[in-house]
Design brief:
Nucleotidyltransferase, domain 5; five-stranded mixed β-sheet; alpha/beta
Length: 250
Amino acid sequence: MLDVSQSLIAFDDEKRRQYAELFGVAPEEVIIVGVDEAGRGPLAGPVAAGAVAVRCGTGIVGVNDSKKLSEKRRNKLREEIRENTLANSVDLVPAKIIDSVNILEATLFAMRNAVYCCIETAFPDVRESAKPLPIVILVDGNKKFENNDLIQETVVGGDAKSFAIACASIMAKTVRDEYMINHIAAEYPDYAFDKHKGYGTREHIAAINKYGLCSEHRRTFVKKILAKQQAAQAAKLAEVAKQEVEDYPF
């Protein structure tokens, strides 16, 4: 049975062939940097973006879209990605920034930071280079982050097509999950962030209804929940007032 990662590697190799002439190098010299996010949808916690730089010939058995892997498998692959790829980076943008600029801009900002950190880790002298390095950025989705010096290509569903993007998806997911468990859940144990990682599960919404919001909640994401709370409270007060009127000794 063909390992899924082989088809993902083949996709990246085809991109190397497409861009090699532009750089004036052999396809094997083109570096693919995959970029993906994790945590756009949760009600709390940061959004994460991972970037992984991959040389031609790199292969890791089992790499796939992080959503298709178990937590145990993702964590194992994360260590293999760190050991076998050229460089990697994950950037986290907190809830207060998400609320300030919106989730799309926060995600693109995280992607940009992760990519530049990844490239500078792989090539410390990149800013002093006389000519552009043969680097192609493959971004999962249909939005590019702002930059003036990097070649980017968006790939819809890229985490299931590109090896580099799949690696980035694993890095983003595992690092964000670890942060939610070790930092946010530890600081706010009442919300069980270690279980749902900030997503809008019944348990999480019940905790919001019971304890209110903490500093890690995205206010722009919980408006509907708060509106329902206020409506329920208003209905309860109205019912109490109605009963008081009916019981009043006129």
